[in-house]
Design goal:
Layout: H1 2-13, E1 36-38, H2 49-53, E2 59-60, E3 68-70, H3 79-83, E4 89-91, E5 106-107, H4 123-129, E6 133-139, H5 145-152, E7 165-167, E8 176-180, H6 185-197, E9 203-207, H7 209-213, E10 235-237, H8 244-254
Parallel strand pairs: 6-7, 6-8, 8-9, 9-10
Antiparallel strand pairs: 1-4, 2-3, 3-5
Amino acid sequence: MFAHETILHRLRHGCQTMAYPDGPAPALPDRHGGSLRLDATKCAEGCGECVRVCPTEAIAQPPGHPVALDLGRCIFCSECVAVCPTKAIAQTGDHRMAARRRDDLVIGGPGEEQVRLAAALDEKLRKLFGRSLRLRQVSAGGCNACEADTNVLGTIGWDLGRFGIQFVASPRHADGLLITGPVSRNMELALRKTYAAVPEPKLVIAVGACAIAGGPFVGNPQVRNGAGEIVPVNLFIPGCPPHPLTILDGLLRLFGGLDRSLDRR
């Protein structure tokens, strides 16, 4: 009787895995403003309010240059959005933020109001990793927020394994590292050894503001201001923490696994 009820229960619930990327992306929560857009041409001369309120110095205005926003350092607190009198900085509600180059996360210049999204790996690496990717996750001093949103991808609703992407326990079984946290001094040696244990060719993915640039700990002598100080990074996924959809988008974008029509919406 118990087995019969279990089967009926499963049938009633149907498939719980989201259709994305074959279907529309799920909506971000109201409290999650998504990526930011910066139109420096709207900035009031001599204002600088956004620069003053930014807790991680992600916004800067060098003399003679327009305001620039580094999404890699941004913790998405939205204080800059609230104080900007001309609405030059705005939330977009867009989950897409992953970039291949660190410089691509800096926005604000002419034609660069939004992040330049990650391009796919070259054909050789796509053929090598695109059907089966094993990642070793390294928490290098993180607060567990990025780690939690990464773990969500393994649940039935997201089912990361359907794309051939899985997390493994040993770096010797991995194709690359997914790093969270600002890389504390106590984790620096462990990260170096873990990276060295991954066989070539290998990838490194930095997830979250801490792993990209130190996050709220930037400049602290006890951290290395992100994974890029220690190992070469192939993909940067901003956020504090990034939404699981942002992480999934970045991973699929790296392997050309997204329908280009999704980028035209």
